[in-house]
Each structure stands twice: as C-alpha cells, then as structure tokens.
Specification:
Blueprint (H helix, E strand, L loop, with lengths): L4 H13 L4 E2 L4 H10 L2 E7 L1 E2 L2 E2 H10 L5 E6 L4 H9 L4 E4 L4 H16 L7 E3 L10 H4 L5 H7 L6 H13 L6 E4 L6 H10 L8 E5 L8 H6 L16 H4 L4 E5 L6 H13 L1 E2 L8 E2 L3 E6 L3 H7 L4 H7 L2 E4 L10 H16 L5 E2 L1 H9 L5 H15 L4 E2 L13 H11 L13 H19 L4 H8 L3 H11 L17
Parallel strand pairs: 1-7, 2-5, 2-7, 5-6, 8-13, 8-14, 9-10, 10-13, 15-16
Antiparallel strand pairs: 3-4, 11-12
Helix pairs in contact: 7-9, 15-17, 19-20, 20-21
C-alpha cells in the first residue's frame, strides 16, 4: 500500500509480471478492509500513510496472529524508522527510491516464508501472490538443516531452551541479530542455527572474524576489488558481502572492527549496496547480517570506540548465550557430545568420563566456557591409558601451592627488567591468540605446508590440522590448502 498512485501502479505492474495477483490500497483504512476479506501471501506497506503508519499494519498482523509477512518501505536516510519497523516484527524493509530488482527479491522471500505457516493465499495484500511452496530446508522440516543445527547446541537447561526458542522465533525475519556471550560459549553455533532455521538456509553462510583481518585489507576483503585496484589485484575478486548473497553474513567479534570500517559497513547495511575497491559502480547486495561479540558494545558506544548508529542497526534483535557456569546441569551432555566428536577426529573408541572426573569438572570455574571444557577433555584423552578418563591432577582447582612454591613461581615469572606482567581478563582468549600467532608464523615460514609447520613445532599433522580448524586459521587466497602430499 502506498498513497502515491504512480508508485502504487509501478509496484503492481512489477509484481503482476512476476505472476502474482495483487490487491492494492492507498490508505490505512482501505488496507484494513482488504485484510478483513481474506489472507494474503505478504503485505507491503509504506511507513507513512495519509491516515496512519505502516506500524499500525504490523500491530494488527501481530495482535490477530495473522500469517502474512510484512515488508515496509521507508524514505531515504530514515534508518530509525527501519529499525523501529524491524523491532515491531517487520519481515524486511526497503529504502525509497525502491530498486525494483531488490523489491522483487524481498517480496519473493516474504511470500515464501509466509507460506510456511499460512493457509493457501490466493491474493497478496498490496503486493504478493500465490505463494510458491517453500523447499523443506526453507521451512525447517525434519529433512532440512534446522533441526540438525539446533541439536548441535547441546543442553536442556532452561537457559539453553530459551536460546533455542528465540532462534526459532527470530530466524523467520530478515532483522539483524546481535549475539552476545563470553568467549567460548558457542556464539557461532547460534549464528549457524539462525541461518539453518531461516528461509535462507539454501544459501551460503559466510563467517568473518572481524579481528583477524589487517586494517588495510578490510575494505577489499568485505566489498571485493577490481583488477588493478592495488598492487597484487591481478583479477576481479568478490568480497565476503558478495559471497554471502542470498544467505547470511556472520560478523564475528564485530566489536573489533575499526571506526573507519564501521562507517562503511553501516552504509552498506542501510543502502544495501557496496562499491568494490577500484570500481565506479555500486552493486546491490542481498544478505542477512548476524553479528557476535564478547564485548559490552553499549559501553564501547559510550567510550566512543563503537558507532552508536551501527550499534542500533545491528542490535535490532539480541540473543544472549549463557556462560557455562549458569548451566552446570548441561555438563554431562556436553562432555558426552564433545568426547564423541574427539573420538571421531582421532579414530579411537569413545571414552567414558568417570563420575569422579565429572564431579571435578563441576567444581572448576571454567572461565573459557565450552572451549575450555573441550581443551580439558582433549588433554584427558591424550593422557588416558584406558577407555575411562581421569582429569590430570593439575586441573584440580582445589590445589594450593605452598609459600615456597609461590616464591619459586614468582621468581621464575618475573621479567628481568621488572616490567609489570599484564593479566588477561579472558585467559582462554589470550592463550588462543598466542597460539594463533605461533601457528600463523610457522605456516608462513613453511609456505603454508602444514606437514612442515607441524614438524617445526614438534607436533603431529593431525594435531596441527585440529588446531588450525579450532582457531579458524585460513590460508591466503591463491595458496593451495595442502600438506605437501604427505599422508597422516
């Protein structure tokens, strides 16, 4: 619905050419009359109407439990209106002047998603039509990826049940999602479950660690580059945003993004277009943005290190992943699942964790959460001599060194120059960062031959493969991901 007759006619003609049957309205009152007559595949509404607002339509659809997905259209630069609409339950938004190609894509997605829950819809409210039957993956059927992705989030504690319910609820929209949680809680698992449960499950999910890309490469890595744009650009190359078209772009550790890049990302999200480095033309993008952070972004906004407008744009819907200390009852299930995965990777029978070892795990603080738990179990498997695991005595949190031992340790760890040793606020993240640095250096020195790098570090090929995968280390583009032809 739109109060401008010319635009309304343009939208109608565009959808009629796509095979939709369309009912149109110029005012809120006319739209409400149409909605009383029948159900539709989707509703497309301008935010500003002569006698109301698109938010009124959203409120009606929600209060009456209507199945239609609603797409709103906002004026150029009205980012606040778009965020308000998404928070109110809009499926997606379009910025005027509307790009018709994007218009067709968004409407098709809204109709398809609505068809997963709605009764057969013979008409589209102001813009839509006989909804195509969604694929099993889009509907989240038993055959699709959604149940598998949700099942990988192990645990039946109330906290984890709440997370899974929220994922199922918000996956159906295009609203940006911010996932918050401490390091090692499984934020990427949540992002992958969101993608698998959405209508974009058949599309790609591209995960980007915002803190792992050198600042001078951020723009070309995100938006792509044209041949000759800079030294070494020998061919056109897509960025992460283009690679995620039709799917989900997962921005991990979004709080590590520099301010200059935050501004460029904000514009790309608002205008839904990017300009590759070295190009004079902008490209339309079609991605859903899911972000994650272990930081307090609201505090970063107050400190001036994170843009407030980008924060509000990314934080339309928030999912908080609980730390392990708040769901101790999930420990037995988590240990079982992790040990099964470790056994598959090592090719060994699945070991059993003794009751005594499980009790000791319950007593550990586990500040590194699930990642730390997995490391402990890996160590226990490596040191075990039979099929029953016992934790190494050094992992006992109840151990208290003597005064003499404390003095020895202090003498051994004090730098020669008596410089203060910084204490990390997240030990596991600190250790992971140091391990990543060592691995990247060894790989670079050995031209990314993992066999040679493993030999240099005194570990096995299997171990370096595991560590590379765990830390998400990717080789440079154009370098084969090989092991020098060596077998395990």
């Amino acid at each position: 619905m739109d109060d401008e007759p010319d635009l309304r006619t343009l939208y109608e003609l565009t959808l009629l050419r796509e095979g939709y049957r369309v009912a149109s309205a110029g005012t809120l009152a006319e739209a409400l009359d149409l909605l009383q007559l029948r159900r539709y595949g989707a509703v497309i509404s301008d935010m500003r109407l002569p006698d109301g607002s698109g938010l009124d339509i959203l409120q009606l659809l929600r209060s009456t439990a209507r199945p239609e997905r609603c797409v709103v259209m906002t004026a150029y630069g009205s980012a606040e209106n778009a965020v308000e609409a998404l928070k109110a339950g809009a499926f997606d938004y379009l910025t005027k002047p509307v790009d018709l190609r994007q218009f067709r894509t968004v409407v098709a997605a809204a109709v398809q998603t609505g068809a997963g829950t709605a009764a057969p819809a013979p008409l589209a409210g102001a813009a839509a039509a006989p909804a195509p039957t969604p694929s099993p993956s889009a509907k989240g059927s038993p055959e699709g990826p959604a149940p598998a992705a949700l099942s990988r989030m192990v645990g039946d504690s109330p906290a984890m049940q709440s997370v899974r319910q929220r994922i199922s609820k918000v996956a159906r929209t295009m609203a940006p999602v911010l996932i918050r949680g401490e390091s090692g809680t499984g934020k990427e698992l949540v992002a992958r479950a969101l993608h698998a449960s959405s209508h974009r499950a058949a599309g790609p999910m591209v995960a980007v660690n915002c803190g792992a890309i050198p600042e001078n490469l951020l723009e070309s890595e995100f938006f792509g580059a044209r041949k000759g744009a800079f030294t070494g650009a020998s061919a056109d190359r897509e960025g992460y945003v283009q690679a995620a078209r039709g799917g989900t772009l997962f921005l991990d550790e979004i709080g590590d993004l520099p301010l200059a890049m935050q501004s460029k990302l904000l514009r790309a999200i608002q205008e839904r277009c990017v300009r590759p480095v070295g190009s004079a033309q902008e490209e339309m993008i079609d991605v859903r943005i899911v972000s994650a952070t272990h930081k307090d972004l609201a505090a970063d906004v107050r400190a001036g290190t994170f843009r407030q407008d980008l924060y509000y744009r990314l934080n339309v819907i928030e999912i908080v992943v609980p730390p392990l200390r708040e769901r101790r009852e999930d420990l037995p299930q988590l240990c079982t699942a992790l040990l099964e995965r470790i056994s598959r990777e090592s090719g060994l029978p699945t070991p059993q964790l003794s009751a005594q070892a499980l009790e000791r795990l319950r007593g550990l603080p586990l500040p590194g959460n699930v990642r730390e738990l997995e490391n402990l179990l890996h160590r226990a498997v490596a040191l075990s001599e039979d099929n029953t695991l016992e934790l190494d005595a050094t992992e006992d949190d109840g151990y208290e060194p003597t005064e003499a031992e404390l003095g020895t340790m202090a003498a051994a760890t004090t730098p020669a120059a008596d410089a203060p040793v910084p204490m990390p606020d997240d030990l596991q993240a600190y250790l992971d960062a140091r391990e990543r640095e060592i691995l990247v250096k060894a790989l670079a020195e050995n031209r990314f031959n993992r066999t040679a790098a493993a030999a240099q570090l005194g570990i096995s090929l299997r171990q370096i493969r595991y560590r590379i995968a765990r830390l998400g280390i990717a080789g440079p583009r154009g370098v084969p991901d090989g092991d020098g032809g060596d077998a395990d």
